[in-house]
From TrEMBL:
Entry keyword set: Metal-binding, Zinc, Zinc-finger
Pfam families for this protein: FLYWCH, MULE
PANTHER family, alphabetized: MULE TRANSPOSASE DOMAIN-CONTAINING PROTEIN, PUTATIVE-RELATED
Gene Ontology MF, one: zinc ion binding
Domain of life: Eukaryota
Name recorded for this polypeptide: FLYWCH-type domain-containing protein
Chain ranges of the FLYWCH-type domain: 3-60
Domain MULE transposase: 182-274
Length: 366
């Protein structure tokens, strides 16, 4: 057992991180760290620091270096608070004993140094922690960049649904002049008062770079629409020709509403992730992990994305005819959301939530 950067107990077991769910005089019940935002059902019970029982399956892959990464970052933060060592020395010492796998899981060097600098400044002159979004007072450190450029571009004010948009003039300029944007919501790194950190990346000079960061209090279509409208206010020429999304239905609807001419693409990684989550949701993770034949049948579903669009449904029907009975809940989920269920009386299939052209990547890989 160890502590998070915020000083809360955390337990690492077989590559998964757990936080306390319930505690009695002789036993602690832990839930997966992704329980709140990722709906992961993995749990374990410990007694005197020893694992005595695991319960439920995780809906995500383990990260075997996660414990090392947390320990290293805690060490760096504590050193920043307690010593006068240089930022470079603190980071160098913090990563010196990490495995190669753990090092690849860390943020880049510049981000680590910025974190150490923020910790040091906060410790020297910290503001009281807010209890709600209404009373949130933003430290001047986060309003401007290290080069003294405006970073906080929009603050909806002291309301419960408070939204914060961060960017720079240069990033907004990139946003207005890119052909591709990439949208994604992150839940594990968001501050406690917020539901998600929403990011917009752009292609710029053959690189993919972050352009906008948004702290959102929820994930309703209304919030996404308000967010995009405020970004348009900041960057009037923002009208992306191509948008890659993470299969968040509410954000997709908001994008289509505000940018009706944009071409939407579903992210293949998130397609695979959604299918894997359905495997765990239906209690099939153990079968998937231990039966390679079953796992191959599951992996045939996202592989449909690489076929020409006209071949997707005929090939899906072939897969369906051979699909194992145990995997039918996953097959049904995929058909309802990504293929479209057959209607009666030989009518065309119903339109799925995410139509085939949205997630098909055939033309992108040729």
């Amino acid at each position: 057992m160890m502590e998070t950067i915020k000083g809360k107990p955390i337990f690492e077991h077989q590559g998964y991180l757990y936080i306390i769910n319930k505690e009695s005089s002789n036993k602690i019940i832990w839930c997966c760290r992704n329980y709140r935002h990722g709906q992961c059902r993995g749990r374990l019970h410990t007694m005197n620091g020893q694992v005595i029982q695991t319960v439920g399956d995780h809906n995500h892959e383990p990260v075997h270096s996660a414990g090392q990464v947390i320990a290293a970052r805690i060490k760096m933060n504590n050193t920043a608070k307690q010593t006068g060592h240089t930022t470079h020395d603190i980071v160098a010492d913090g990563v010196s004993k990490l495995s190669d796998r753990a090092i690849t899981s860390l943020p880049n060097l510049q981000n680590l140094k910025r974190t150490v600098q923020r910790i040091r400044q906060k410790h020297q002159n910290s503001l009281p922690l807010p209890t709600d979004r209404n009373s949130l007072v933003i430290d001047p450190l986060f309003i401007r960049t290290p080069r003294n450029r405006t970073f906080l571009q929009f603050d909806s004010g002291p309301i419960d649904q408070r939204m914060l948009i961060f960017s720079t003039k240069k990033q907004l300029h990139m946003l207005e002049n890119t052909n591709y944007i990439y949208l994604d919501g992150a839940f594990s790194v968001v501050p406690e008062l917020y539901f998600q950190l929403y990011t917009i990346h752009v292609t710029y000079l053959k690189h993919i770079l972050p352009a906008v960061y948004v702290l959102l209090p929820g994930k309703k279509q209304r919030l996404y629409k308000e967010m995009l409208q405020e970004i348009k206010n900041l960057a009037p020429n923002f009208d992306p020709p191509n948008v890659m999304i993470d299969f968040e239905y509410a954000s997709m609807k908001a994008i289509r509403n505000l940018f009706p001419t944009s071409h939407l693409y579903g992210c293949f990684f998130h397609l695979c992730q959604n299918i894997y989550r359905s495997v765990t949701r239906f209690g099939l993770k153990t079968l998937y992990d231990e039966n390679e034949s079953f796992a191959q049948q599951i992996r045939r579903l996202p592989a449909l994305a690489f076929l020409p669009i006209t071949n997707v449904i005929p090939t899906f029907d072939e897969i369906k005819a051979q699909f194992p009975v145990e995997g039918e809940p996953v097959l049904t989920y995929f058909e309802e959301n990504y293929i479209g269920v057959k209607s009666r009386l030989s009518r065309p299939r119903k339109i799925p939530k995410f139509d085939i052209p949205l997630w098909n990547v055939n033309t992108n890989t040729l």
